[in-house]
Design goal:
By secondary structure, chain A is an alpha+beta fold. Chain A contains eight helices and nine strands. The N and C termini of chain A lie far apart (100 Å). Classes of the chains: A alpha+beta, B mainly beta.
């Protein structure tokens, strides 16, 4: 016969059984911490606590490197986020979310425990400078080809009165310089015109250039000045698009310049293709007039249409 | 009564991971019929984080007044963890006993915690067993009480495994008894601290009858606490089992 089972043994057995289910259980506090990673490449960690949150006891790490504040810019190339909070004595919840993602990750943490790495989504990680340049050159280019039909017609309008390569280059240069200036000034907020004014004016500029092509076959000096003024309008049009797309806050200048470069490349491609296809027709006045009339009518139609809208 | 060793000392920082646990009611002086919110707190230096009510962690959460004992009501997951209605007079004892949980600490931290809590026998045992450089594996549980009102009979224990029970209490002095499994626990370090002046700590070793007397130099909210550690049950996965007793009251 074995030894009789005493009260202490029963109690110990009960304790062991209890521990089988609660071995990892800690006291759960009421502190809640939320980390949000935004698509504008910033992050914010907020602490909700009954006591005054101790932000100096919160430690934020991107790829293991400590960040200086609970809010700020996500470092370039960062892929993971980890966190530790020593301002609590109990287990607390850390919720993490990439903006735009429905899923929220929750981790239960003790005061001295560093969280598991949270993988940042591609949307919130800031692009490198090279990626920004590549992206915005492509955006500028596609804004001309194939999406910028009005800008294409304007450039073709200039092309049709290119009695010489010098005449073409002087017009294109005036246009480029003008729209670069107004694009930059608009993006920096120095100048601002509402799109209900800019868009019909762009359409009207197309018609004006084309009508001049019908009226005269000579490149008058004022043509370059007019093209410059119209270029200012087109720059504001580009800015409208760029504002909608958004520019990365930390890489504003590279993005702006890259977009402009993309626009230039797009225009040069339009002219190059036009030269290849129609260069021998430029001395044919009927061809120039016919094309210019078509462009002028389109420009006028857009003008009316855009005013009506 | 034996001579008590009374030492008031500046607070030493206890390590994170070995935190005090206590009950703070919304008032220590409730009127009859009053609703008293009882917050469970874990922390240090009388600064704590509230603990939400978690049934899976509660072994016993009771209030005892002149007419007997009943469970403390509360909403799961909410803070404060308990709501007590003063149905029978203005005095009651609220007690919370948790289920055990597992805790592991690096050796330096664990030994510092043992020193802070006066657990010299455990320190010596670890040295003897050659475990001083090993991380701790400990199960711990809470035995917290708070006294509501002033004229109650608080001298009857609730029957917690480790329990601090006031034998006498007035504005300037309190005598408590520390019981382990309903027997007085001698030579245990018992610490009293004041909520508004946590730098003031009064450390007393219990006598052969488990008693410790404290002179209370100022009025206010006090916490008296003690930690007792024993060998953990076999197959628990731990080497040590600690029991944390606390008693809060207003003198």
């Amino acid at each position: 016969m074995g030894e009789p089972v005493g009260f202490a043994d029963v109690r110990k057995l009960a304790l062991v059984l209890l521990l089988a289910t609660t071995a990892s259980a800690h006291e759960i506090g009421t502190t809640q911490i939320h980390a949000l990673f935004r698509r504008d490449h910033t992050y914010a960690v907020t602490i909700r606590s009954v006591r005054k949150p101790a932000s100096e006891k919160a430690f934020v790490y991107f790829d293991g490197v400590r960040a200086s504040a609970l809010t700020g810019d996500i470092p370039a190339h960062a892929h993971t986020f980890t966190f530790r909070y020593e301002g609590t004595f109990a287990k607390y919840t850390l919720t993490l979310q990439n903006e735009g993602s429905d899923s929220v990750t929750t981790q239960w943490l003790d005061a001295e425990t560093t969280s598991n790495p949270f993988v940042l989504s591609r949307d919130v990680i800031p692009p490198t400078r090279f990626e920004v340049i590549r992206q915005y050159v492509a955006l500028g280019f596609t804004h001309i080809l194939p999406e910028g039909f009005d800008h294409i017609l304007f450039v073709l309008g200039l092309f049709l009165l290119a009695t010489s390569m010098r005449a073409l280059l002087s017009q294109i240069t005036a246009f480029t310089v003008a729209h670069s200036i107004s694009l930059a000034l608009t993006m920096y907020g120095v100048v601002s015109l509402p799109s209900r004014v800019v868009e019909p004016a762009i359409a009207l500029s197309i018609a004006c250039v084309a009508i001049e092509n019908v009226i005269t076959s000579r490149l008058h000096p004022w043509r370059v000045v007019v093209v410059f003024v119209f270029g200012l309008l087109h720059g504001m049009g580009f800015a409208g698009v760029l504002r909608e797309l958004g520019l990365p806050r930390r890489q504003f200048v590279p993005a702006l310049v890259s977009f402009n470069v993309g626009v230039e490349v797009g225009q040069l491609v339009v002219i190059a293709v036009a030269m290849l296809l129609f260069a021998q027709w430029l001395r044919n006045r009927r061809f120039v007039v016919a094309c210019s009339v078509a462009i002028a009518l389109t420009g006028l139609f857009w003008t009316v249409q855009r005013i009506a809208i | 009564m034996k001579r008590f060793l009374v030492i008031a000392c500046l607070l030493s920082c206890a390590p994170l991971g070995a935190h005090d646990f206590w009950i703070e009611p919304s008032t220590f002086r409730p009127a009859t019929g009053a609703m008293v919110m009882t917050t469970l707190l874990v922390g240090q230096q009388f600064v704590g984080d509230p603990i939400a009510r978690d049934s899976s962690q509660i072994e016993r959460f009771v209030v005892r007044d002149a007419r007997g004992e009943r469970n403390v009501a509360g909403f799961e997951g909410h803070n404060p963890a308990g709501i007590v209605r003063m149905e029978n007079g203005t005095a009651a004892v609220v007690g919370y006993r948790s289920k055990p949980a597992f805790l592991s600490m690096p050796p330096e931290k664990f030994e510092q915690y043992l020193r802070d809590e006066g657990l010299d026998t455990v320190l010596a045992a670890r040295t003897r067993r050659g475990e001083s450089k090993q991380p701790s594996r400990e199960i711990y549980s809470r035995c917290a009480k708070t006294l509501l009102g002033v004229r109650g009979d608080f001298s009857r224990p609730l029957g917690f495994r480790l329990e601090l029970t006031p034998e006498s209490l007035d504005a300037s002095r309190v005598v408590v008894r520390l019981d382990y499994e309903s027997h007085p626990l001698a030579n245990a370090l018992i610490i009293a601290m004041h909520r508004d002046d946590p730098s003031l700590r009064i450390r007393v070793r219990s006598d052969a009858h488990g008693r410790a007397a404290f002179s209370l130099p100022k009025p206010g909210v006090w916490m008296i606490k003690s930690v007792y550690m024993i060998d953990a049950p076999p197959a628990s996965g731990a080497e040590w089992e600690s029991l944390w007793a606390s008693l809060t009251f207003e003198n």
